[in-house]
Amino acid sequence: MNYSTIDIEIQASGIAYLTLNRKDKRNAINQTMIEELRAGIDALSVDNAVRVVILRGEGRYFCSGADLNWMQEQMGKTREQRVAGARGFAEMLAALNSMPKFTIAMAYGHAFGGGIGLLACCDTVMVAEETMMRLSETHLGLIPATISPYLMAKLGESGMRQLAISGPLIDPEHAVTLGLASSVHHFDQIYNTARYHASQALKAAPGASAVTKKLIADLAPRPEFDVIEHTANLLADQWETAEAQAGVGAFLSKSDAPWAPAD
């Protein structure tokens, strides 16, 4: 399959690189990327030659979150179309979260909003020093709906209260403390470190690894279909609000949102 917003490279070793490739948009997630990520995840999941998947972003940024132009487009659609768009994002996250491979995420530059959702769906997350991280949805009049099941699993209620309600910037060390990230590395070393962890994962039997990952999912709280559908509906409803329209519009016009305090 030819992709326009992602790249997939499968090496003979069994390591696959899944790369977000909208470098000029800081790898922001739009409708095409959602669809291509889902297709790529599905293909890698059933490829017996793939043992480990490393998720990364092209350039010096991992992912700046959902593309706000895409968000703005959703606001002008019917509710059924909005729910379908949100559901597609939710189902892509579910596919990544349940992927029967060992997944490693490399975060650097920016990891905002939906980008943090991608991190929460991976088995281990390596963050470069000085990475800026934020659940930025409420600053835009939005909510972290479809990513919330995976964030709850990683952060718990306490961590979600800290990050999701007010949307503070957090540093990589704080991300490790909260359980969102596994370790912090210098940007120039994060690639080699990910390769090392991938090489260690290759020493585990592929079948046993896949069953163990499913076992962990079976024992842990997990988002059922109704939860995924509920979050998709919540996001679709929020796209319709005056707050969301004002917040996204303010960001795109590089002005302050109406609720932001004056400097």
Verbal overview:
This protein has 263 residues and is an alpha/beta fold. 49% of the residues lie in helices and 14% in strands. It has ten helices and eight strands. It has a domain of 184 residues: 2-enoyl-CoA Hydratase, Chain A, domain 1. The radius of gyration is 18 Å and the shape is globular. The strands form two sheets. It has a six-stranded mixed β-sheet with strand order 1-2-3-4-6-8, with helices on both faces. It has a two-stranded parallel ribbon with strand order 5-7.
Which labels suit this protein?
263 residues, single chain, 10 helices, 2-enoyl-CoA Hydratase, Chain A, domain 1, alpha/beta, 6-stranded mixed sheet, two-stranded parallel ribbon
Give the structure's gist in a few sentences.
By secondary structure, the protein is α/β, with parallel strands linked by helices. The chain has ten helices and eight strands. The protein is 49% helix and 14% strand.
Provide the residue-averaged pLDDT. Answer: 95
Head-to-tail CA distance between termini? 49 Å
Element-by-element helix/strand order = EEHEHHEEHEEHHEHHHH
Broad structural category:
alpha/beta
Major sheet: arrangement of strands: 1-2-3-4-6-8
Number of strands: 8
Biggest sheet character: 6 strands, mixed
Poorly predicted spans? none
CATH superfamily of the domain at 6-189: 2-enoyl-CoA Hydratase, Chain A, domain 1
Integer-rounded radius of gyration: 18 Å
Beta content: 5-15%
- What overall geometry do the principal axes of the alpha carbons give? globular
The CATH topology of the domain at 6-189 turns out to be: 2-enoyl-CoA Hydratase, Chain A, domain 1
The CATH architecture name of the domain at 6-189 reads Alpha-Beta Complex
